[in-house]
Amino acid sequence: MTSLQLNPSSGTPLYIQLVAHLRHSIETGAIRAGEQLPSVRKLAEDLLINPNTVVRAYRELESEGILVLKHGSGVFVRDSVVARTELMKKAEPVLRSAVGRLEALGLDEDEIRRLMENELAVRRSAKQTRKKHA
Amino acid sequence: MRGAPIALGWAIWRRHRGALVGIVVLNVISWLGHLSGAVGPLAGEPAMLDTLFAAISILTVFGALGYVETQEDGNIGTFPRRLFALPVSSFCLVAVPMLAGIACIELLYFAWAERLSHGGSTSPLFIGVLFASSMVFYQTALWTLARLGALRIVVVGVIAVAMFGIGFLPGMVAGEPSFWRTERGLAAIVSALALAAFVHAWRHVARLRSAGGVAPPPFAHLRARLTDALPGRRRGFSSAAAAQFWFEWQRTGMVLPLLVGGVLVLVIGPYSWFLRNDPGYLLPLVFWTLATPVFVAAPWGMAFGQSKPWTEDFSIPSFVATKPLSAQQLVATKIEVAAASAALSWLVVLGFLVVWLLSWADLTPLSRFAIQLWAFQGESVLAVYGIAALTVTVGVFLTFRLLIANLWIGMCSSSLVLVGSAIGLFAAVLTALQLDVYRLPEWLLADPRHVTPLAWGAALCLAAKHWLAARTWRAVAPGFLRSYLLAWGVGTACFVALSLVVWGIVRIYQPIDGRGAQSLAILVALLLMPLARVGLAPSVLAANRHRR
Amino acid sequence: MREICDRVSSVTDIVAVTNLSRTFGAKRALNDVSLTVTRGTVLGLVGENGAGKSTLIKHLLGLWRAETGTVRVFGLDPVAAPVAVLARVGYLSEQPDLPGWMRVEELLRYTQAFYPGWDPKYAEQLRDQFDLDPRARIKTLSKGQRAKLGLIAAQAHRPDLLLLDEPSSGLDPIVRRDILEAIVRTVSQEGRTVIFSSHLLDEVERVSDHLAMLRAGSLRLLGPLDDIKMCHRRVLLQFDLPQPEPPSLRGAIRVSGEGRSWTIICNEENLPEIARAPGARVVDDGAASLDEIFVAHTGASVATRLRPVA
User: Fold this and answer.
1) Helices B17-36 and B3-15 sit at what angle, rounded to 10 degrees?
2) Domain ends where: C174, C197, C227?
């Protein structure tokens, strides 16, 4: 945390800078899965920012699924987070090229979304039928 | 280089033109008065108005030409450091304000001399030398003793009293004096001292400028070790009131005892030594010793209520104003400090008396007086001791009274009130001297009927005082009122007791008739302790703290 | 007494100022200022020199009596009940006028006597952390050390309201860090509030969650800091023709630049209209920094470059 340099006067809000830094630390392994992050109070005092900013950053990361707030114990990195973020990183280019190809074919946004939802629904029902028969 | 002294002198003039023009105006008014014959000297005595104007002028000159400026990091005045960047020698920087001050004071002296000193035997040159030297000592004290801060006033006061004393010394010596006690001898000594002071000031300023600041005081290491070893406040304070008492005591409590000690050691002590073979002077000197705390407390008490006494800053510093203390507690603390200060000053006086009377004093006149008292009080030794103790107690209460009577003036946010009261007091004293207040007792005793109007006047004043007190004390908490009433009661009782004793003694020497005079004495004693004004202090302080 | 304490503690508005005005002679120092501060917030007070920040803080301490309007701290009037209010307030001013003759430990013991909530261990820990010699006299301390000592005296009794009046002016970055740390520590403890005024906008941006901007005694901006920053945008317009005079655009708070390029600071709602300015193209558009917002509101509304003297 001491390497973090927050710049309040840049265009990005402070909590977004903090979110980006925390996410980067987790992805690069500086903070390991399952490790406890400093409390809101301690982090605010270390970084000299308002505690509300830290609260917002933690909540944002929790909604992204990277952190889990356990009442009474503290803030922890989700155990499975690294695998998932790496996976997410791998999935991004796949999705980008697929959407790019669909657009080249001449489909618009609504049509692509409809196709995607159809495909997911088909796979979901196939999974359920496989479970029923298993 | 020629232009530099002129520029510096002009800067002095420009900064204080208001004050200097005022002095000139006073001079002109007085001169016109003389010319038109409206204000004439009465039978060899200088006119009261003249004396008043002269005193105001002299004080203004000293105040205006004190060549100091407050630096931004502190609130004491030191030699203006901004001048050090100018291409002017230190000698010039020191000499110009000194010479300007000397010129002003000498001009003033020669302008007033012929109007003031009618039939005086002291040579004008001697007085002129004394004035010039006073200015030199004054400037030197202000510059070289900047470390002392506000206590410089103490030093300046002592120097002023010493100068007065030296002025009167030639006239007081009986018989064939040695050379050193004649006017010429004293003038030589004082001029030599002034020259030494000038050189010291010059060295000090030069060092301030180029040698990196003020030299550490002599034996700095030793003193540092001593002050470190002295108990700073190691224990905690038992209450907020105790903490505030300690704070106020450190700030203003020690001034009165130090001043009294200074006057006794530097003025009355030497006088008593020089006059030790002259029995006629013993009783007056004892009287003046006992009167010293009272006379020193009178001017000090005028500004005692101020947070920074005798400065132009009347505001309550935020360090004190933001403490969770009510205005009443602040006033109560000041009153306690005044009591302790008065008590300590009288301890100093008693200590000095013991040392003096037991060492080099010729006690015959004193023992004669004591035997007379013993005889008239029914041959009771206890009574004599009782009277002595009563006198000291009355002295303590009188000093205490002088300190707290004008508490509300110092706490007021307007400087006009203080200046006005100072001028008023001065004018009252001068009027009293002019009307020969010494002759008042004789006038009273001559005809009993003279007493009646004065007694009625005193009674009216008493009634007004109590009515005012009832109004001002309405807003004050009962606890504060109770404790002050106790002090007031004891003080008034002591005053009344002493007035009765004095009356008894006077009756022995002057067998006169008249309960009237005794009632007058009692009424005056009842009027002495301040009541209404002390009740006014908390509301005035609150108004100053929460500025409108 | 307990009921009064309970009543006061249930009031969530720590500070409530209504229609406060103050004139000093001819100058209007505060002009109809109204603001409330709820518990647990950090209010940053910004403005130019002489805008009225110190005057406002002094009204909260009761050092000035309200000329018009009311001032309530903890629900009480600081002029009518100074003891009750000041016992729960910690104050650090720009130049703490600490008595020079006192020693450090004496000052701490003296201040301790006034506040029942004083924590001696905390004070000692801070004194140690700030590296202040307890036997040193205050007049021998540097400006930064005096500020640190004033900071200890202001926060060691864990006040409910911490008032800081330009505490960082003229101090080195290390002391400024200590002051920020005190602010964050105070507000992260349950129920404590901080109001501080400063010129250093990046400090204000770091630790405040509410902002009040004063200009010439009037309140120009008041609200949560994030809202204020989101509302203001900086637009860079490129005109087809060089403009000899700054273009007058409705809704622009500040216009600066020369020739063909002009930078506009404006409110978010006026952005579409400004983007449609005739003969202009939007080259860049972003969130305005607090520095730019401050200059926009307090400086001249039109900034032109000084023409060189011929």
Assistant:
1) 70
2) C227
C44 and C116 assigned to the same domain: yes
pLDDT digits (tens, 9 = 90+) for B138-162: 989 888 887 776 667 778 878 888 8
Tokens standing for residue B6: 């002129």
Closest chain B CA to residue C109: B236
**A64-90 average pLDDT score:** 78
The pair of structure tokens assigned to A43 is 């982090």
State ipTM: 0.84
- Tally of structural domains, chain B: 1
- C103 touching B (Cβ < 8 Å): yes
- Interface touch B324/C114, C-beta < 8 Å: yes
- The answer, for C63 touching chain B at a CB cutoff of 8 Å, is yes
Closest partner residue to A45 (CB to CB) among C185, C208, C290 is C185
Neighbours of B465 (CB within 10 A): 17
CA A18/CA A47 separation, integer angstroms: 10
CB within 8 Å of A132: residues ≥ 6 apart: none
Q: Is residue B339 part of a domain?
A: no
Q: Which of C184, C207, C227 finishes a domain?
A: C227
Question: Mapping DSSP to helix (H, G, I), strand (E, B) and coil, where does residue A25 land?
Answer: helix
Token pair recorded at residue B179: 């050379």
Closest in A6, A11, A40 to C289, CB measured: A11
Please indicate, yes or no, whether residues C8 and C63 belong to a single structural domain of this protein: yes
- Residue range of the domain that includes B145: 1-215
Structural domain containing residue C209:
2-227
Cβ neighbours of B326 in C, within 8 Å: 82-83
Report how far residue B210's alpha carbon sits from residue B187's, in angstroms, rounded to the nearest whole number.
34
**What average pLDDT score do residues B290-316 get?**
83
Q: Write out chain A residues lying below 8 Å of C226, CB-based.
A: 13
Say whether both C192 and C65 belong to one domain.
Answer: yes
Dihedral sign, Cα of residue C179, residue C184, residue C186, residue C191: positive
B6 pLDDT exceeds 70?
yes
Tell me phi and psi for residue B40, to 5 degrees.
-120, 155
The domain total for chain C is 2
The shortest C-alpha distance from C21 to chain B (Å) reads 12
